[in-house]
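WARN retry 2 of 3 for item q-0093 after timeout on previous attempt; input resubmitted unchanged.
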Amino acid sequence: MMSSPAPPPPADGRGPRAALVFALTAERLSIWYEHGQWPTEAQGASLAADWLSRTKRSLPLAQRRHLSDLSDQLARQIAGSLSREAGLYTTHEMMEALDPKHESELTQSLMAECERLLDAESAADASPDADVAQPAR
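OK item q-0093 returned
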């Protein structure tokens, strides 16, 4: 009797979520510099699903979309703060870093930024006022 394959592990831990934001940011920047346009929300969700599939992980659609949105914000911030040449270099480094054998100080600092984004989001979600409705005046 053959057992069905085990479902993919979730990507709901901090590390996999930060790695997904990093990978999506790299992909978004690559598309921006190559085609001069940002991926749509649907394309971002598709990129997230592709990355999760390659890493044999899973996330609900709402979380994929949310992390895709975070990557969009970060990619636009990076592109807006760098010259085209520096942006192309950063994008190249990020794409290279998708291979776990490649490391650089630049990509380590960008991964730390992805982690910081997730931590800031978690802190905002955990604040006592986050879920409290404000009284009408």
